[in-house]
Each structure stands twice: as structure tokens, then as C-alpha cells.
Amino acid sequence: MVKSAPVVKSVLRKIASILLLLLAVLVLNSVLIYAAPGDPVEALVGEMGGATPELIAELRATYGLDRPLWQQIGVYLGNVVQGDLGHSLYYDQPVTTLIASRIGPTLLLITTALFSAIIVGTILGVFSAQRRNSTLSHFVTVLSLAGFSAPVFWIGIMLILLLSVSFPIFPISGMTSSDGTTSTLGYAMDVAHHLVLPALTLGLIYLAFYSRLARTSMIEVLEADYIRTARAKGLSRRSVVYKHALRNAILPIVTFAGLQFGQVISGAVLVETVFAWPGLGTLAFDSILRRDTPTLLGILFFSSLMVVVMNLLTDLLYRRIDPRIKTS
Amino acid sequence: MSDRATEMPTPPALPTPIAVPEAVSPTRQTWQMFYQNRAAMLGLCILLVIIITSIVGPLLYTVPPREMVWMPLTPPGQSEYLLGTDYLGRDLLAGLINGGRVTITIGFAAAVLTVLIGVTIGALAGFFGGWVDTTLMKVTEFFQVLPNLLFAMVVVMLFSPTLTNIAIAIGIVSWTATARLTRAEFLRIREMDYVKAERSIGAGNSRLIWKVILPNAAPPLIIVAALSIGSAILFEAGLSFLGLSDPNAMSWGRMVGDNRPYILDSVWGVTIPGLAIFLTVLAISLVGDGLNDAINPKLRQR
Description:
The structure holds two protein chains of two kinds.
Chain A: H1 4-35, H2 40-48, H3 53-63, H4 69-81, E1 87-88, E2 93-94, H5 95-130, H6 135-149, H7 152-166, H8 184-222, H9 225-232, H10 237-249, H11 251-259, H12 261-275, H13 280-289, H14 293-321
Antiparallel strand pairs in A: 1-2
Chain B: H1 2-7, H2 26-36, H3 38-60, H4 92-128, H5 130-145, H6 148-158, H7 163-174, H8 176-189, H9 193-200, H10 205-241, H11 252-259, H12 267-295
Helix pairs in contact in B: 2-12, 3-4, 3-12, 4-5, 4-7, 4-8, 4-10, 6-7, 7-10, 8-10, 10-11, 10-12, 11-12
């Protein structure tokens, strides 16, 4: 247990740096509102169909928009610390309530897509690394090239055309069908049925990335000295590949899973929009249409929070897989 | 040859002409390798066709892209408008040609911005080290944490979706990878003997950064710059698909977004513009991979 002290210390340092990053996101949010032409009150007044100058001034005072920048930042920070991300002008609800109601579907979509992509991608990469000129290996190269180049929303639309329109296997959009199935199992099956296409779309992009990463990393590891040693000791091929090589080859995959989480959220925004998946992404899309600034900024902050938490988790996982990393 | 052989009856070791490889400059060698790479040359050709079409196309094909010209939702090949029309009766081909201009222009502009910001920050961090490095890397980490598309959406929505704002927004969220790579290259190169030699004869910091280290760090940065054009085009497509595009300009992503509610009536309306984005970015990726192979022949094992 003596060993765990530096780990705790470095995790604490990590958390401090996370808090600093989140603080920076909040400051950036208030600076953006301040710097942007027009303000939320104008949008609100537009929605109400006009107001007297006195009312506009009063509203500005209520939102603190008549104060200097540093005070606005202070007000915003104070509110967020109390769990108040502002009020959605369009939905007439607190932004936190809105986000809380949308977070479940987004997490379901992202974790399904990311985990399938990492697992399948690692398998593809590991197999193709062992036979570099096989059909599978060329398939991985082509897949990764296509995955890097195709717009994710277009892949989604093409999958809809293929698997919902031409061959109506999966529903076109939404998360549930409104046929009133009440049993828990029925509901779960229904959601899973709706989840396939969006998760496949988002997953394909990352499958392309992870299969290439796993392949490169595995090729590199297989040429390392300790693998030659393991072979020289007379260990079986299987034992060399899965016990010695895989554990090391998987490290960059874990690192990238953490680093890329922000991009996965961005991808989810597009995929949710295509499939009308009722998560944070569709909420972000709707708030753009309605110029609902507080909601969009709230989503930005909350997604940043998810990214840093994810980074922390992958960091801890990395320590478990690679015992060489104790501190730093 | 035979005359010489009789005049100088020396052992055969000297006169036999061994094929000495012609001295080739590294740049030329790189181009030769690139030229021999079929996939990369194919990518380059596709890219040139797309770029030339988007420059010359709007002058030769003058159908207005944003006006109703024919019956809405006409399939391709059933009217004088080759690729058919969309739900508002706008000519798809005209949209494609004019949209290409916008998409490619924003892609290049955003990529230039990405490289400028990334190289500057990475160079300063890697060259000076110490607190400059710590601070700049914190900033980089911050921009890595920020979900890039959401942040660009906020910026474009708050500051109105003009072409300039969109390019700036993409540049601001995309530079972190370039910065990290530049920093790593600078950390490596600044310890090289030739850099120390330059320093010892009194070269100033700015000369060392821009004239000595940067040219030597250029090869990997060129590849990243090429690939960042592709990601910028994808990014712009995503933004305009979500409706964040200049209302006065056509763009491929916007065409897909506009036609999405009508996929059941107009498969071509969503397929063709998306295919254009895909082909363009694919061509750029092929060129980037080809450059990578040509510049780092040792790493050709991927």
C-alpha cells in the first residue's frame, strides 16, 4: 500500500489540472457571450415580438449583461458552481434539466460505438499485423482510408438508404417506436433495434481509426527485442502474440481512446442529427436553429466535463495495464 | 572502347563500367518515389480535376445554383439538368460546381490557419522550453479537451456564419495536433550539432527558429498540412450540414443537409454531394499517404 501514495498524489494533481481546464471553459463561455454581436436579451425580445427600451434594459440587468466583462464572468462562474448553467430561452427550462434529460441516450450511443470500434478494431489490427500482405490486411488499409475520408453524416444517410429504405431491417430514426410496449425487455429490445444504425455509423469511423492504429502498433511491437527473446525461448506463437505483444500494443489504443473522446462527442452531434437520436447532439442542433445560446454553451461545458472525466479514467486504466508508469 | 582496351592493357577491374547511380537530390528522389506510387498519383489527378472544375466550372456552366430552374425532385438524366434537381427545383450540377469552390476555398484557408497557429505555438514551446513550454502546452491541452465541433458551432452561431468566420472557427479548433508535432520536432532538432554550431557563431533566436530548425522540421509538417486540408473540408461539411453555412453560398455539406428531409423522394440529392466530399477528401488522403511514404521510405510498412 506504500506504493499507492504517489498514485494518489498524481491523481490529485490530475484533478487539479482538470478543474483548471473546466474553469477555463467557463471563462471562455462568458468571454464569447460578451464579445459576440447581439446578446441573449435581443434574441429573447425577438422571440417575444419586441419590447420597450426600458424593459430591455431591465432584462439586461437581470441577466447581468450591463456589467463589465470581469463581473459577468464572476456571475457566470458563481451560477455554475451552484449547478446553474442558465435558462433555456426556447424550452423555458433550466439548461441543467434539459441536459440531464438528454445525457442518457448520448452516453448509450457513444459507449456502444466506441467500445465496439475498439474491440473489433483491435482484433482486425492484430490479425492483419501478423499477415501483412493478406486480404484482411489490405481490407484494413482500405477501410481506414475510407473511414478517414467519408463524412460521418453521409455514411449515416447511406446506411439509412441501404438498411432502412431498400432493405427495411432497421428503423429510419428515433430511439423508440411509439407502439406502447410496456415490458422492460420489450423496451430494451426496441431501443437496441433503433441503436444499431447510429452506433454502426459512429463506430465505423472509429473502427477505421483503431484497426489502423492497432495494426501499426502491433507491427512495431512484434519487431521489438523482447518479442524476439520470447520467441527464442521457444514460447508458442500464440503465447508470444497474446501474452507478450498484445499487452504492449494496446497501450496507444487506450491513450487515443481518451484523447479522442472530444471528437467522438463531435461525431455524435452529427450522427444524432441524422438519426433524430434524442441526445445532447440533437439538442445542440435544435439550439442552433433557435439561437438558444445558454443551452448551446451549457452543452459545450458539459461535454468538456465528460471529456476530462474520460481522460482521467483512461489515465487510470493505462496505469493498470502498464505497471512501468507509476507517477509523472 | 575497344581502342582504349588495346592501348591500356590493365587488369579488368578498372575499365569495366560499373553502373554508378546518378547523383539525385533528396527532393527529386522524393518526387520520384511519389511519382511511382500509383495510389498517390491517382489521388493527385482526382484532386487536380476537382480543383480545376471548381475554378473554371462556374464560368463555363452558368446555371444559377440557388434558383429554381426546373420541376422539383427531377431525377438525374431526365431533363437538360444532368444530375437532376432538388426539392426546390435547383440544379444539382450547378450546386455541385459552385459548392466545390466554397468547400475547397474554406478547406484551404482553414488548413493554412491551422498550420500557422500550430507551427507557431509548437515552435515557441519546443524552442524555448521552460515556462513558455508549460504555458503553451496547457493552452494546447485546453483546446484538445474542448469538443471541437461543438466549440466551432458556438463560435459560428454567435459571430454569424460568413465564410471567413467559418474558416477561422475551423482553424481555431484544429491546430493542436500540428502544435504537438512541431514541438516534438523542435525538441529533437534543437539539440543537433548544426543548431549548436549556428548558435555558437551568434545566430539569434528568430534565425534559429525560422531559418535553421523549421526547414529541417518541414517534412513531417508538410504531410500534416496536406492532411489537415482534408480534415478541414470534412469539418466544413459537418458545420454546413448542421445549417451553419453562409446563406449566400452553396456548399456540399449544405446540399446534403438541405436534401436530407427528402431522402425518400430524392436519393441522388443526398448521395451525389456527399460522394463529392468523400472523393475530394479521399484524394487528399491518398496524396498525403504518398507524401508520407516518399518522405519516410523507412516507414513504408504500414
